[in-house]
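Design request, tokens follow.
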């Protein structure tokens, strides 16, 4: 099976504007941002989507959210606020079959989304 674009970024086959990296998570700026700040946080271990993560790998969720907190602090977003989004499946807006978290900020984000 062919690698996803995210796997190619993790393997440094495709360049990305990386803002954070640790042992488990890579975070980079989205190339088609939906807000002035649009960061994608991806686990280095591949899971197709939120619903596909098996119980033995549920620690990935805390790792994603901890990394999002670190990035939000690094970018000084705590005071103005930000939104975290996970898309799951076609109706959820998923376009890349690799679990990822969107961190959106830099403008007022209306509700309901989409």
């Amino acid at each position: 099976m062919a690698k996803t674009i995210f796997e190619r970024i993790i393997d440094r086959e495709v360049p990305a504007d990386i803002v954070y990296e640790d042992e488990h998570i890579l975070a980079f700026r989205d190339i088609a941002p939906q807000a002035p700040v649009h960061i994608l946080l991806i686990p280095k271990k591949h899971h197709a989507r939120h619903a596909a993560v098996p119980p033995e790998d549920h620690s990935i969720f805390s790792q994603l959210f901890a990394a999002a907190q670190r990035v939000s602090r690094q970018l000084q977003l705590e005071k103005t606020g930000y939104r975290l989004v996970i898309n799951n499946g076609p109706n959820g807006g998923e376009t890349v079959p690799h679990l990822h978290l969107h961190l959106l900020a830099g403008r007022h984000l209306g509700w309901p989304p989409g």
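Comment from the thread starter after seeing the answer: thanks! The mean pLDDT is 96.
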